[in-house]
Amino acid sequence: MNIEINMDELKELVENKEYKKLKFLLERMNEADVADFLEDLPLKEAVLVFRMLPKAEASDVFAFLSVDIQKEVINAITDKELHRIVEDLFVDDVVDMLEELPASVVRRVLENATPETRKTINQFLNYPENSAGSIMTAEYIALKQGMTVKDSFDYIRAHGQDKETIYVLYVTDQQRHLEGVVTVKDLLMHDYEVPIEDIMDVDVICCRTTDDQEDAANAMKKYDLLSLAVVDKENRLVGIITVDDAVDVMQEEATEDIEKMAAILPSEKPYLKTSVFDTWKARIPWLMLLMISATFTGLIIDRFESALAACAVLTGFIPMLMDTGGNSGSQASVTVIRGLSLKEIEFSDVLQVIWKEIRVAVCCGATLAVINFAKIWLIDRTLFGRTDITLAVDAVVCLTLLLTIVCAKCIGCSLPMLAEKAGFDPAVMASPFITTLVDAVSLLIYFRFASAFLHLV
Amino acid sequence: MNIEINMDELKELVENKEYKKLKFLLERMNEADVADFLEDLPLKEAVLVFRMLPKAEASDVFAFLSVDIQKEVINAITDKELHRIVEDLFVDDVVDMLEELPASVVRRVLENATPETRKTINQFLNYPENSAGSIMTAEYIALKQGMTVKDSFDYIRAHGQDKETIYVLYVTDQQRHLEGVVTVKDLLMHDYEVPIEDIMDVDVICCRTTDDQEDAANAMKKYDLLSLAVVDKENRLVGIITVDDAVDVMQEEATEDIEKMAAILPSEKPYLKTSVFDTWKARIPWLMLLMISATFTGLIIDRFESALAACAVLTGFIPMLMDTGGNSGSQASVTVIRGLSLKEIEFSDVLQVIWKEIRVAVCCGATLAVINFAKIWLIDRTLFGRTDITLAVDAVVCLTLLLTIVCAKCIGCSLPMLAEKAGFDPAVMASPFITTLVDAVSLLIYFRFASAFLHLV
Fold first, then answer.
1. In what order do the strands lie in the sheet with A168-172?
2. Are A124 and A95 in contact (CB under 8 A)?
3. What does the pLDDT look like over A304-328, one tens digit per residue?
4. What is the maximum span of chain B, computed from C-alpha positions, in angstroms?
5. Cα angle B242-B86-A224, degrees, rounded to a multiple of 5
6. Domains detected in chain B
7. Exposed, middle or buried by CB within 10 Å (0-12, 13-18, 19+), for A366?
8. Which of A178, B2, B154, B366 is the most exposed place for a label (fewest CB within 10 A)?
9. pLDDT value for A369
10. Residue A231 forms beta bridges with which residues?
11. What is the number of CB-based contacts under 8 A between chain A and chain B?
């Protein structure tokens, strides 16, 4: 990247109170970088520096700040300054912020909004979390049929300044029913006197306010849209989702999937901003549940205590069998979970997926079993002289390995699909859960083979 | 989503050879949906249906198709049709396709391109994989200083039709050096006679052709850009990256991270399109490596065989200790890996991260140890009458649990950061690797405590 801002230099300016020079530099910086810089300062100084920003830049920087600093800033500025910021911000950014702020601060923000803005904010706050309505913005441009290309440009020139995008324009009737969509590119490719109903696309891709935000983002990705229309149940246009918000949603959802796959309850805050207590809260439920499940695996071992005592060499192979089973299962489950969330796999593919996993499992299992058989015989028995490892023991271990991998891959690929079908989030059926289950399965297979081949009880 | 296409109905039309009706419907569908439909057909029929599409739509649909179908289509169409498609496609889409096609097909594609297009394609093919150059497109609009707003609009009207975006315009000198950027919104907000040098932004955010595509995508996300300028090392504009390509990169990178975290070598193809052999190839290396590492854990158990024989009750707790340790370590590593890849965490935060993880680990460890202590005493000993579980055994298990969790979280958070510092991809330091390492650590702690408290050898 070509723009390199020396944050340390800026920090020194703050420390030495060289505010004039600091102000000069801040005005030349990109708003996202100014926000980054403020995030690195102690709260008090961040507020101090924020108030130095020129009014026009302040709102833009404010939108990029984390809620912690936004709160401090709101507490420090006058009602007049707050009014300016609230009116300058896009409604979706105000709503994002209000959802995280304490009630007293929310009240002060709403008091300093115009009645009209306040009404829109309240309406937006009522959309369910993670719905398309909760991430849309009301700052779009709506045209009317009967306008020409020239009328449209005049309208954009008059009303476009504070809109979040001016490149996608929606055509609505008097009751705000969505009738068509036209882009600035379409306008520019036609003569000024052409009526927009001749060039607008009547098949508008749109979503409902109550649709899942992830579905909305996926539709934007699929159709390469810069902006997606959001309508209510009477097909009236109530807002738009812009591509930058869709990008944020996709990244959030990927993070959430990754967290769930690692047995963590998803959190919205960045890691370094989350308190120890919140991190503990997000991690302890699954750890506890998995710990308790793992005690059942222990029960299986206890049940076969006498077999292990009679043939102690078996114990040493338990970690390898359990780990390899767990890893094989995780590979299958994670692949399927990601495929489901990218819509590459659907429940109707379940048989195709299982059949594929069985074949992959047999290939992986056979490879590992052969390698392991040779390794045990050549290294453990011949090189290290472990004469207690008989051919039968070696065979039991390697057969268990093969069968465990096949079971693990079947469990790993089918559980997430069943979860999806049952309406649960497939991501929780990932590594830790599969591992715990596969541990038990691998031990049962192991002891069954051991009983059969080694004549143990 | 409001547009629902009944794929089954379309398939029936293909089967019954009702091509007229099919053609009528296809012409009204979105290109992305037509491509989806073709993907679901057998190859031969897909090519047949593709050739029914009107010429103007064909290239757009072609860009959405998977390489398998693209190859079949190329083999089936005439040179003239191929020429039209190659010239209609954006250069970045042609390059993506050529990278996957066999050499003979590549030759035919290049033969049917104009010399100019061929030159650009060859240049693009030389950019390293995953570089900004490899995902950029050459179809941008460059303006010259001295043009007014009106001149710019005239220029866009004349040259904008086949450009990938017309909303972000770059100002360059005669040698294509990047001098500024101006958006159509800026143009629309100013009078027609204003010269563009008065309104252009001279601080252009741009990247080098050789920069990592992930960095380019992250910059676009950070600064909310619709298009990012790509320059060569002499600061000459060579292409742009559009937001839809950046979105694809972000999603690919997230998938790649997820795959690596699950010990799978990343693949570019969707799951259902990957052959069993390729899936096997992607999964077997890590499975093998982890299987071999797990045998060391087995060696630890063998080493303490006599201790286990003397106090057989200890064996039953091994799965619980190993699993909980592994899960705790994965939670920390996955959180840190995701933080690193979203740039929320940097190497300089390493001490802060470790200190945080230690505190979280002590909280989690203490919670689980207390619950486990009570559970072993009340359920295993009192309820099930396992008198071989003494107070000392219970204490050894719970102390091991606490210490294992602390070690697991420290290993889990520090290894990915060290990998990042050493220039490796932190994602490979995820669950499976951490689990294997933590397994060994937890057993060593367990046997050490057992020796000390239970006076075993």
1. A142-143, A168-172, A178-183
2. yes
3. 887 777 787 888 888 889 889 988 9
4. 94
5. 30
6. 7-126 (1.25.60.10), 142-248 (3.10.580.10), 271-454 (1.10.357.20)
7. middle
8. B154
9. 94
10. A208, A237
11. 345
